[in-house]
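Running this now, will post back.
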Amino acid sequence: MATLNHTGVSYTVFHLLGIPGLEDQHVWISIPFFISCVIALFGNSLLIFISLTKRSLHEPMYLFCLLARADIVLSTATVPEAPAISWFYAGAISLDGYVTQIFFIHATFITESGILLVMALDCYVAICDPLHYTTVLSHATIIKIGLAVVLRSFCVIIADVFLAKWLPFCRNNLLPHTYCEHMAVAKFACADICVNVWYGLSVLLCTVVLDALLILVSYRFILYTVFHLPSRGAQLKTLGTCGSHLGVISMFYLPGIFTIITQWFGHHVPLHTHILLANVCMLAPPMLNPIIYGIKTRQIQERVVSLLSSQRKWC
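Update: finished.
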């Protein structure tokens, strides 16, 4: 349970308590968590399956599939904890498990941000420079960019993991949360966490915030090009090609913005509100992304209808 070091007792096992103040509602709150996880896993798995089995969709949906894989990792790394705590009282997690979860959550989150930036670049080239699209963004180029996005996430988060691993935890091992969020756990350390705070902030600014700013810049040029098209019909058709991307961006960044605002300025906001918002950040994108793709992409709709029709024939 605990080991001795130069600071005294350092806990090596933590206990996640779920959402404080709502203990009586834990069983019921966990139901939408569980349903959201199932929808996320099914929807993203179906999206990957469709793109792999339909050759005409494989290349144009490569980025969507990369995002779907990240969504599966993000949802499975966080969401199952809430039902486990509420239904099976399985809230114990080791220090190694804690840093592992931190790695997958933060690395996947930064990866998703990078993928959204690449998708914005894809929209920009397709709309602003369509004649050179296949030259600028060939399939091999997109694969290399995708690998670079994943490598960036690994490189910036691995230091975060070691910073968390080296902290001595002697104040408490009862964590009022549904998953291991770095700073929520670091505040229980009996050591100076200034390095953790500043490194975490610098990573956030250099990755997610920078990605968001570059996405805004790219869409400034995209909208400028769209609104200078000769006809309204052409404008609406061109905007429709980026409709799913805009929806995904909204689902990814808006919950995060609200969470950051409440953490920085909502000092009187109840703790359970902070935790619920943090869970929405992890739940909303993986669950809603495949739904947005399905609504906006005609080829996906046709493929789903085809699969359902073949199942009925077998029945």
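The longest strand covers residues 2-5. More later if anyone needs it.
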